[in-house]
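Data card: per-record layout.
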Amino acid sequence: MAVLLRALCLLPFLPHVSFGQFLPFFGGWFGGNNGGSAVSYSDSSNWELVSKDSGVSAMHLILMPKNNKAIMFDATVFGPSKIQFPDGENCRLVPDSKTYQTDCWAHAVEYDIETAEVRPLKVWTNPWCSSGGLAADGTLVGTGGWKEGGKSVRLLSGCATCDWKDIPDALAGNRWYATQQILPDGSFFVIGGRRTFTYEFLSPQGTGDLKSFTFDFLRETTDLAENNLYPFVHLSPDGNLFIFANNRSILFNPTTQKILREFPVLPGGSRNYPASGMSVLLPLNLQDGNAEAEVLVCGGAKPEAFGLAENKTFLPALEDCGRIDIKNPNSDWKIETMPSRRVMGDMLILPTGDVLMINGAEKGTSAWEAADVPNLTPVLYSPEEPVNERFKELEPSSIPRMYHSTSAVLPDGKILVAGSNTNPDYKFKGVKYPTEMRVEKFSPPYLDPSLQGLKPEILLEYSQAALTYGESFKVKVKFSNDWEVDRTDMKVTMYAPPFTTHGYSMNQRLLILETSSVGRTFLGFYDIVATAPPSGTVAPPGYYLLYVVHRGVPSTGMWVQIQ
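The structure for this 563-residue chain is written out next.
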């Protein structure tokens, strides 16, 4: 009776508290551990058009941590974009122009993910088909490109007025269609490029010693169509690099610079540009202390697809996936079949640990006018489900997203989708697939309004954003309906935002953290104590989006930095 009277006395001071939140005050009978299990949501995904004009074609895309803006950029040689620098300011001198021609069109923008406003950015050297990733301090480090941009390093920080800093001739090799991977100490490994069978290292600040190292594996895996460009590189939690090119893969030690083993060939066809399959390192689950490391490779094209596409013969894309344990020296590929064929798609890891396949085509290959039959239907892949229950088709888009399309996971769990230009310049009429300037957001099923009572809200001011390797930290969350809270079905995930271009999201990584306690403090408020990743081999230093996932529904992400 005393407890009841005390609760009633508090009612005038709690006008914002729902009945479901207030019930736990009565001894915890109605909440806590009895809220139910993870929901099995139906396909309630949806699309929304958020901008009719991104300013530039989004060939490359990355989400920046300091200002929560997306960076989109294109090549500098495809003619005028749709956004100019104001009043002719900030124009660039066109390289190799004998008449000192200037270019006053922007080829990069900073895109506001909330308002869709764009700010033009000045790219000095050509970043066409370049690579990139975030440094530990949140700076975007871009590498390579074409012609005068082939050996450039470009830096962009997240301040409100910042622009690109371009360092020409900072690389040892021409890195056109190369891959960039962050290493455990925050430095970068840059590998490949057209007819560039080498790799090199950059410091965490993006500087190098202009020294490259021959890598015969790239020479061995090339073919007439060069189906080993943009090789897939994933950092294993043991510090080694899984490198996949064409249809072959190896485990490489970047410290000793030795190949440790070669994995079996993945059958079916070619997987790298221009065959352009998709690949991710599946989520690393740190809850048991010994995370498995599995790589998923899906889609692509037959080796001859590129040559035939030049004559407008578009072969069906591949429809299979290969999955392999890269820490097991005796592992082999386990083959699965997607619901549809896909080439040039993007593969993104969602905050829940599921994998989203989006964009691309069902026939052809990467290159200008080299594909047909847009694949408009996203597919959800749930790696923890039984083998025959992992794929699920979601709501299709109405906008073709083929060559040079991109996508990114946003803090609120939506997917930003932009780009698609199958033409050698900006063309809006007279072609089957015009240059696409519209920007969409895709909402996965966990954003169904009927599930929002399960969604945690991270209280930023009471949660720790600066993490130290191996140490515990606290995240405070709030629920609008405590009645449905299940403390046994709550996890904390950390997501490294990737640099996405040409169907490959470099440096993408999701970690499922060890949690030691989930305690209710008061009226729908919970404290979660989690343990930060143990080292840079598991989580390279830098910024991550931290999510709390409750019964399959993620919170809005909070930016954290680990070092």
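Known properties of this structure: The longest strand covers residues 514-522. The helical segments are 2-10, 19-22, 216-221, 305-309.

See the next section for split statistics.
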